[in-house]
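Forum: Protein Structure Q&A
Topic: Joint prediction for protein chains with partners

I've read a bunch of threads here and the consensus seems to be that you should model interacting components together rather than docking separate models afterwards. I'd like to see that in practice. Below is the full input, 614 residues plus whatever partners are listed. Could one of the regulars post the assembled result?
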Amino acid sequence: MNLSQQLINGLVMGHAYALVAIGWTLLLGVARLVNFGHGQMYMLGAFVTWWAVTKAGVPYALALPIAMCVGALFGVIMQRVMLKATLEQNLVSIMIMTLGFGYVFSGGAALVFGSTGEILDTALSRQEITMGDLWMTWQDAAIIVAAILVFISLKWVLDGTRIGRLVRMVAEDPKLAMLAGVNVRRVYYGVFAFEGAAVAFAAGMVAPRTPILTSMGFDEVIMTFVVVVLGGIGSVTGSYLAGIALGLFTALFGALVSPAYTTAAAFLVLIALLVLRPGGLSTGSAGGVH
Amino acid sequence: MEKRGRHYMALGLTGFAVLCAPTVLGSGVSVYSAAVLIAIFAIMAYGLDVIVSDLGEVSLAHTVFFAAGSYTTALLSTRGGVGSAWVTLVAAVLVAICMAALIGFVTLRLREFVFSLVTYALAVVAMTIAANWSFLGGSDGIRGIPMLDLSLPGLTLTARNDRELWPYAFTLLALTIYLIDRFRHSALGAAAIMVHLNPRLATMSGIDPAKVRLQVFLFSAPVSAAAGWLYAYQRAYVSADLLENYFLILMLTAVVLIGKRQLLGPLAATALVLIQEKFFSLGGNVDKMILGSVLVAILAFFPQGLAGLARPLARMWTRRDARN
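Posted by a regular:
Agreed with the consensus. Here's the joint model:
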């Protein structure tokens, strides 16, 4: 095993995990909402990008915003249906409904896109960067850059702008925010639209690394759970660090033990974390776990 | 007392009607097959029903218990050479109890979405393990499960096809419904409701919520596992598809469609879903979309379930009756 190459793979995978999880981080940490259909929304994002590039002949740079618009639209539709439960903070209903949505998405996608595997090929994923005997594709480099940019922008919006303040206010106390004249519904719509657009963008960036199937999405959802819990539920910086830690862990586990069981191993990390620290880990100690 | 007697008589009559239903509906092969599957999936859903309706938590790991029952049965009856289905049933139940104890112990302190998140992750991980581990047959699964043989000394009880399987499936279903009813009238059932609705009051009344949660979990897992046990004989093979989302979505729909804590709710809901899929199917993917949409629509627009929808209608009916 080439350790340096595995570390590079781990860094790329880590940024991919963090990017895929960003929508959930905001959803859970900031709005106290969950989305168990996250994996299927990732699948949809990948297939819309694939459809735009190979069937509609749109350039990749334009296919990404198209996928994001579709993702945001689905997010808003989901939130519209779940609005009553959201305002009541009925997490049990929201959980089951998002599972149902995920199931509808996977059925619908199989109907529209077929159930055979496809390859989402981009110009960037065909070109490699080599340094000695180490390598990565330009797509991998783009994932790292995109993840860093998205995290910095989100952090800035949440901490430094009026919109961020409104979102945090709604998360803290929706009823009080409503009394203060904040349009709570609009914030919930916005958060779910962001979740949909963010996961579609992540899918468009990350999906070229592997073949895509309409039945996929489960691995992504587990990795997202681990990132969100490991990062300290809802912490943006924590999620970024947790994504990288998880990426390095799975890369080394895949190389040293078995690539088939990386999801299982990530799950064991999740269980260990929850049993040891049921409240989730804070940002500060996230780096010390691995 | 008299009311209770009438209640049991009504249940008995309903049971008899259900038992005869496939014969009345023309005794076709597909009718018996649908009836057996409805019974099996309803039993599976009853396991989850007590967790969701009584305990108020959403376990997404009940497909794991269901699959554990099937896999235990498959492994014992093929590689283990065990002929008696009694032995495989006991083993399936024991395996489910051990797994529930482990999962319950680990997740004891987790509530709400964190509990669901972990149980969902568990179901996904169980699927990757079942699909990859050669001991469990890997992606091929385990084939060649013999026919159901519940013979006792001096009494031959076997089932070679769905038609012969139906009385056994019906018996297991009736037994399950009886157990759920007993559970709801037991001290544990009352404690579960109290822990669900008012955990602080429960603690003050000397109830340990963690213990109640674990006990309810231990009660519910073997129910779903027993369904898995029968399903292994019905299908004659098992594979990782037992852990697919279909069973999870079906179970959840069965629990919420008619309404929570309706004794016959999961059975009626499973029957509705299976009848649509077996006799009015619009293709696998459209059926998937229908099932998922039904689940979402019920929770979004009729949180009390179809029973909640029927109640005002029934009240209107009785009021008009009284007026006449």
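Chain A has one domain: 3-285.
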